[in-house]
Amino acid sequence: MALSTPNVLPLYSKRAVQPPRTRLQTFMVYMAFIGLGTFYGLMMAYLPVGMMMIPTIPIAVMFLLSLWLLPDINIWDDPAMHKTFLIFMALFIVWPSYLAFAIPGIPWISPTRIALFWLMVLFLWAVATSSKLREEMVTTAKVSKPTFYFLMLFLVAQVISLPFGNDPVAAVQRAVNNQFYWTGMFFLACHLFLQPGALRRFLVVLMWLATITVLIGLWENRIEQLPYAPYIPSFLRTDEAYMARILSPQARATDGYYRAHSVFVVGLTFAEFLALCLPFLIHFGVTTRSTVNRALAGAGYVLFSAGIWVSHSRLGIVGWFESNFLYLILWSTRRMYFRKSDMIAPALTYGFPAMFIGFIGLVSVWQRLRTTIFGTGAAQSSTDARIAQRDRAIPLILKHPLGFGAAQGSDALDFRNAGGAQTVDSYFLTLALDYGILGFISYFGFCISGAIRGLKTYFRTDDEELLLSGPLAIAVLNSIVIKLVLSQEQMQPLLFLFMGALMAAAFRHKMAVEAARTGAEIDKSALVLARG
Prior knowledge:
By secondary structure, the protein is mainly alpha-helical. The protein has one domain. The chain has helices at about 25-45, 55-70, 80-95, 110-130, 130-140, 145-160, 170-190, 200-225, 240-245, 265-285, 290-310, 315-340, 345-365, 365-375, 380-400, 410-415, 425-460, 470-480, 490-520, 525.
């Protein structure tokens, strides 16, 4: 049997590359470069702005081909990837998405996008040059096979929906963008959070970033305008009409309450972000052994609750109650299982149905609580609009089951609010309109199956960091409920990060269980803890 050849590049030849041998050949080479440059210049000059991405397709293909041809060296820079990831997350949360440099013909350039670009360069380089890393990510993602296959189906749904919208070029641009912000974040989390301590460190940083947004929101609520609005330099004001709409006081026309939105575009997204973060703050407060950390978690809980309140968002209030109730029942059930002699946990667990019924009764008799959760007549117009959108969207979805492509469903539905602006107020409708019935089923299958896998990890592990699977699952469930009444996608990268973190935690628990069963140490190489 022949021996396999080593997987290394052959020695480079010392012979110099031969230039063209005749003047005619030299002339033809120069003319080819000049012709190519002229062709690209004409396309940039005459193509509409919406079609500027067409000249980049050959460049993108060559870039991907170059990545594919890179040698498999199994060495990558994990510390740089971790640092760049944290920088990206800090900018993603704190830097307003509407503050960017605008250059005609190309997308807005913001610090967040620059950080994402560098993060993806590091990540794609590592993936392209390491078969070990590719195998690790797929193995980690497949720890929950339903979650992995639902994600693959969601990717298929995004692709097959592209030709059916009014603007396929814009749909392709948005779909490519989503792969960086969504799919890329999922697989990046599957890799980064395998390292012990990385998940907890990320969530602690996230809590501090959320605190900054809350402080800005509280300041904004007091003065009824964004505190930094008068100081935005002109070169960051990309679209004056768009900026004026965001920076102007946001209040519901029917009741006049100011709705703080902090660094986000609308107060609904601000409330959604805090509702996604709240389960982690509750978890840190309950599980920490440090009095100082418990005091910090308590102060953060009050701040986050205040931030949700000043957003005047019903979805934020629903997320607040959902976070508290779900964490209470999960914590008490797990505590009852692990501490047989404990009396608090059984009382909370078995008493939860009575508490829930009592809460329902309290809502029915306490007018202020009922209006806080379900709104008053002032919010009836929003409810009526959502019903009208649903009634118009369902026949359209059934007629076009493959969808209209990324960000094209709103144009297809063409529903306009009282101000004449085109809008869709439920992500359930947006998913079905954009990616069709397959996209709708696969997306929610992806989220629900991932949350279930996270809950299994939470109830089976005794590792303090892996216990974060519980609040991660609650955050994912919060997102599903919130998407009933919110169509904004600004928090989708965070959701996909949470899903990747759930898979990484589940894989780490699986490795620990297998090591305990065999009596061996955890395979460090399987967790890729020893970096090249």
